[in-house]
Amino acid sequence: MVAKRFRCVECNKDANELHRDYSNGILKITICGSCQKPVDKYIEYDPVIILIDAILCKTQAFRHILFNTTLNIHWKLCVFCLLCEAYLRWSQLQGSEQSNDPADIIRYTKEWDFYGMFGLAALELGAFSVGVLSFLWLVQWLLGFDFELSLLLKALLLSSYGKVLLIPAVIWEHDYSPLCFSLIKLFVLTSNSQAIRGTLNNSSISVAILPLVNHI
Ligand SMILES: [Zn+2]
Questions:
Q1: Ligand 1: distance of its center to the CA of 32 in Å?
Q2: Ligand 1 center to residue 78 CA distance, Å?
Q3: Tell me: the pLDDT tens digits for 122-160?
Q4: Which InterPro entries does UniProt cross-reference here (predicted)?
Q5: Rounded to whole angstroms, how far apart are CA atoms 213 and 215?
Q6: Ligand 1 geometric centre to CA of 76 (Å)
Q7: Could you give the angle at the alpha carbon of 139 between the alpha carbons of 137 and 140, nearest 5°?
Q8: Partners of 29 in the β-ladder
């Protein structure tokens, strides 16, 4: 059986284990041979602390989630985020078509509009993901560094979790809603950048291409 490869959350180097279990019940966190820091300090942390660090866009937290856990909810999370975005667009569409005619109330039952918005959001996410991955593949081809496309896609999808904030922003609508939507988009882009940075092996390359990724 092939041992699962982990990654050091600090320097992104491969590691064979996160901790060593001694026979007398004592656990000892493995120290990274490259940076001399614990391979994954988060194995001792409460999930709430890990979530807070992920919200703070720390690359170490993204590396822990992506490489050192068995969390495999990125596709479900992706569908949920698309539903949130579709709901935002659908609510804005309904708002723009508002009329005093009582007969127009039936517009709110037009669920096909919602499905259309869902399809549009999915297309945009697909185009964004293909654009980012194509760009990184081109950089890989030019500069000759390695990365896994599937891991990058997982990082992109997981780090888009901020889109769930669109739902409360729509429900508690107020004068500052457009500003909230812009801030949520900025937060999602920042999370995407940090997750990609945490996934790439070469930190200097990731720092160089991050501003470009943000503009795709
Ligand atoms: Zn290390």
A1: 5
A2: 30
A3: 999 999 999 999 988 888 888 777 778 888 899 999 999
A4: Arv1
A5: 5
A6: 31
A7: 60
A8: 19
Sketch the domain layout of the chain as residue ranges.
Answer: 6-67, 74-214
Pull the structure tokens for residue 126.
């697909």
Residues 69, 40 contacting (CB under 8 angstroms): no
For the stretch 82-126, pLDDT in tens is: 998 998 888 887 666 655 555 555 555 667 888 999 999 999 999
* pTM for this predicted structure: 0.79
Mapping DSSP to helix (H, G, I), strand (E, B) and coil, where does residue 35 land?
Answer: coil
Rounded to whole angstroms, the Cα distance separating 71 from 13 reads 20
Q: Using alpha carbons only, give the angle 174, 180, 186 rounded to the nearest 5 degrees.
A: 170
Q: Is residue 22 helix, strand or coil?
A: coil
* Tokens linked to 19: 């901790």
